[in-house]
Amino acid sequence: MNSKESLNAMEVAELLNITKNTVYELVKRGELPGYKVGKKLRIDKADVNQYIESQKTGYNNKAVRRVKEIVQVKSENVISSSKDIIIAGQDQILDILSEYIKANISDIRVLRNNVGSYTNLYDLYNDRISLCSSHLWDGDSNTYNYEYVRRLLPGISCVLINLAYRMQGFYVAKGNPHNIKTWEDLINKNVSIINREKGSGTRILLDEKLRANNISSSNIKGYDIERNSHLSVASSIARGEGDVGMGIEKIALQVKGIDFIPIQEERYDLVIKKEDLNLDVYKTIVDIIESKEFKEEIDGLSGYDLRDIGKIIAYT
Predict the structure, then answer these.
(1) Which residues pair with 195 in a beta bridge?
(2) Residue 45: in which H helix or E strand, if any?
(3) What positions does the domain PBP occupy (predicted)?
(4) Ordered per-residue pLDDT tens for the chain, 316 residues
């Protein structure tokens, strides 16, 4: 292979406007193919370009692979074995939780499904996943998660266990050249947005805020341009593909060339069916979340408020 077609981690970081550590994280999570030459990580430039294009179109190879994995352990769209645990949600906290479960329960196969909160709850209702995360804001009650769990899982009692609080806000170019601070600033004709996909908690927050402020999405330039992760939105803003996007503060710390404008603190919860709490595997999951070791590892990532981690927020 021509050496010009292969990049090191720093070169990829510069191309994507992210930190070097974030590149390693993308490779570790399988979102960006990489390989070792000696002890050095190398990434093909073609794969970097494909990653960028996949984020633009909302098509995510990793998500497709995960769906295929889930299909393999399902029969007629239900989980086929009590030995399978499918955890749905997009935050790194869930990746770490998965590793803890594997370390504590040797005979359990843990799979991850990287999709948005609204879809998560729908899949939980249909027994397609085992448990999921949620950060869905309801504009009428000004609360997180409870109202959506009640509506999307009718007749099913669930427990909401807090994982963290995160700050949602606007990703803007360095220096915030368009002075974007409020929802009304999104209708500026000189401002173009990079949106999240339907079903994500961030997209629902935006749409609910637009409704509450009587703002029509048709007046927002770029509203239909979607990306399928906080990172891809932030990177798009850093590359100048849009002027503003929404996401969590943690990701803003990993992407170069952008500022973060805080808008609203959100509650990030784990949703488990109440009847499942009687099973040993779910008891172990709760014990992990409540453990000092798990809390310390999450706390070391920065960007999370763990004041209620492990706390039962509500029963539905």
Answers:
(1) 226
(2) helix 45-57
(3) 101-289
(4) 444 587 887 778 777 767 777 777 778 766 788 877 766 788 887 778 777 766 665 444 444 444 334 434 343 444 445 578 999 998 999 999 999 999 998 888 899 988 899 999 999 999 999 999 999 999 999 999 999 999 999 999 999 999 999 999 999 999 999 999 999 999 999 999 999 999 999 999 999 999 999 999 999 999 999 998 899 999 999 999 999 999 999 999 889 899 999 999 999 999 999 999 999 999 999 999 999 999 999 998 888 999 999 999 999 9
Q: Let me know whether 223 and 138 are in one domain.
A: no
Say if residue 131 is in the same domain as residue 183.
no
Same domain for 79 and 196: no
Q: Which letter does DSSP use for residue 279 in this model? A: S
- What pTM value is reported for the model? 0.77
Count how many domains the chain has.
3
In 58-168, alpha helices (H): 61-72, 92-104, 117-125, 146-152
Domain shared by 88 and 211, yes or no: no
From the number of C-beta atoms within 10 Å of its C-beta (0-12, 13-18, 19+), residue 173 rates as: middle
3-state secondary structure 153-178: CCCCCEEEEEEEEEEEEEEEECCCCC
Structure tokens at 136: 């869905």
The CA distance from 175 to 172, in Å, is: 8
CATH number for 14: 1.10.10
Q: Are residues 291 and 146 in the same domain?
A: yes
Boundaries of domain holding 232: 167-265
By the 8 A CB rule, do 283 and 266 touch?
A: no
**Residue 105 is encoded by which pair of tokens?**
């329960």
Single residue among 15, 33, 57 that ends a domain in this structure: 57
